[in-house]
Amino acid sequence: MTPNNNVILSRVRLARNLKDHPFYIQNKEKAREIVKKVNTALVKADTFNLYYMSNLSPLKLEEMKERYLISQNLIENYENGAVLINQDESVSIMVHEEDVIREQCFLRGLRIKEAYEKLDKIDDELSKKLPFAYDERLGYLTACPTNLGTGLRASVMMFLPALTESGKIRSVIKRVKELGLTVRGVYGEGSKAEGYMYQISNEVTLGITESDIIETITETAKEIAELERRVQETFYQKRRLETLDRCKRAYGILTNSALLSYSEFLELMASVKLGANLGFLKFKNVEALDDIIINARPMILCSEYGKELSPVERDVYRAEVVNIKLQKIKE
């Protein structure tokens, strides 16, 4: 088992503000002017689509949040908020979030360094057109003091069923905190670890370099992935028949349901992913399981359908979609 079996997603985020500008800009005309400058600065970096929050429907806003492309803070700044998203949705640049600019890059698997390098080039292009608020002693100036310094947050989303079920996740979380990192749920601070999914990120941004942050997150993710592999071998080997039955039953329910709530879906998909990791279930592309998980989220599902659905309608449609997609990738 390689780290990429358990590292689902790598994310790097940079917080930036502008020199001689307030961190929270209320004037609509000034806010739009900054959005236009950001858009112009990005021309040489990549092809981006620009979206103003005020032009998007509530359904579209929630869908984009479920894809991690925007945050709740940006949605709440409905009048002035905007986001620029590149073609493959690996990069999103939020404007007028908690900070004036929040740059994000997402890549599949353990690719923190690659994500940072991609975002660093974009950051360089932005800095040519927009002078960032920077202090020689404090580094990049940010709305929240915890982001001072590099303004860099790096994180990995990890699938850790064996560590969770064995109870060893508690010692992992303790060890991670000792390294100056934190463990959260899939939607960040205050959220739960749904489907054995955990987000591990740096807490410290001041007095440490970007390369130190990237290296610490990368090496920690590798160590946790290796520990998960070892625990899987011993923990589930003792429960082999029980685990095999659980994984196959989960697949059977997912491909034969008429109604499928999101909470039940997550629980069953965690067992299917576990079955794929243990070799009990064979799929043409294991990463496709993560696509199914993301696209089964409530508002993404509604967007795919073409309109907002009631909870029961969502559960019916989810059951249909998951059945088709799982069978399509099954060997």
Your description of this structure?
By secondary structure, the chain is of the alpha+beta class. The protein has 13 helices and ten strands. The longest helix is centred in the C-terminal third of the chain and has 26 residues, at 210-235. The chain is globular and about 65 Å long. It starts with a helix and ends with a helix. Mean pLDDT is 92; it is low at 187-191.
Question: How would you summarize the topology of this molecule?
Answer:
Elements: H1 3-6, E1 7-16, H2 28-41, E2 48-52, H3 58-66, H4 72-76, E3 82-86, E4 91-95, E5 101-108, H5 112-129, E6 134-135, E7 139-140, E8 152-159, H6 161-166, H7 169-178, E9 181-184, E10 197-202, H8 210-235, H9 240-254, H10 262-278, H11 287-295, H12 298-305, H13 311-329
Summarize the entry for a quick read.
Helix content is 48%, strand content 17%.
Structural class: alpha+beta
Which overall shape is indicated by the principal axes computed on the Cα atoms?
globular
**Rg from Cα:** 21 Å
Query: Strand content of the residues, in percent?
Result: 15-25%
Low-pLDDT residue spans: 187-191
In which order are the strands of the major sheet placed? 2-3-4-5-1-8-10-9
